Structures are given as C-alpha cells and as structure tokens.
Amino acid sequence: MKQHLPAMTKSLLAGFALTCAALGGMQLNAQAIASHNSNAPVSFDAGRIELQDRQDRVVLSGAVRITQAGLTLNAARTVVDYSDAGTLEIQRILATGGVTVSRGNERASGDTAVYDFNRRIITMAGNVSLNRGTDRLNGGRLVIDLASGVSSVDGRASGSSSVTGDTQQSGGRVTGTFSVPQD
C-alpha cells in the first residue's frame, strides 16, 4: 500500500494542477469584457426610441443593439439614464429581455443587466451564462468589474443590487465546464 501512495498522490496532485490551470486560464483569458474602455463613445440601434427629457432618460426597444469600443450589448429593451450638464453623459443602462454582452470570444447572457458607467461595473442576473470558447460558467448573477478586471459568478441572484433573477436551472449553485489541455 505504501508503494501505491506516492503514485496516487502524484496523480491527485497532477489532476489538481490541471484543474487549477484550467481555472486560471479561464480567469486570465476571460477578461475580454473586463478589459473594456468604458469611456469610449456609445452607439445604438433600435426599432423605437422614446426620449424622456424630464426624467433624463432614453428608452430603446425593438431588438436593441448598443456598442462601445468592441463591446456589444443586445436586448429587447433598454433604459438609458443620463445627466445633462451642458453635454449628455450616460450614467447607467438597464437592459431587459434576452440580454447578451459580448466582446472578442467572450459572451455573457442573462435575463437582465445593469451597466453602471460611474462605477464601471456590469451586473447581469437571471439564468446567467458566461462563455469563452468551450469554457462555460452558469449561475444566478454575474458581476464584471471593468476597473479591476475581476469577474465573479454567484449561484443566486442576491445582494443589494437592483438586478434580480431566477436561478432554477442552477439550483442556487455555480456550474460550468472547463476545457483541459490535451497532450
């Protein structure tokens, strides 16, 4: 038994190292969205636009597509809050209805999303999925911090965020798959 222990230990350590490498690779390479320049101009395309000047917001609906420096947000409807101190400055975008955010080979999807321009954070909730190549993470809430480059997935959409969602698919847990390098 003692002779098999070192071989088993090596095998377990090798498996652990491969898992860590796969997780590290996802973290290092899944930063396409997180390395985004949130100060770049924002363009939009929608079926309908409603300007609500008194509330300092614009409502876009009908296959909305918003782009900014290679980042694309698609949704059924968005509410864009802005400030008007001589020039219009976007403060926040609330997107609902089949929301996807993509940049490069990374794609995040969920039921709702909030892009907070002041805090440089995108929060997605409700049946969230983060994909990069064949790697995939699923959960209830995804927070992408554009300033720090850190993305996190929670099993349940909870906390003080105004974005909430249903996590029936993941059962309150984060699930996923990572590809492993082949020899």
From TrEMBL:
GO terms for biological process: lipopolysaccharide transport. Residues 1-32 form the signal peptide. Residues 152-163 have a biased composition (Low complexity). InterPro entries: LPS_export_LptA, OstA-like_N. Residues 164-183 have a biased composition (Polar residues). One of its GO terms (cellular component) is outer membrane-bounded periplasmic space. The keyword Signal applies. Residues 46-149 form the Organic solvent tolerance-like N-terminal domain. Residues 152-183 are annotated as: Disordered. Keywords: Signal. One of its GO terms (molecular function) is glycolipid transfer activity. This is OstA family protein. It comes from Qipengyuania aquimaris.
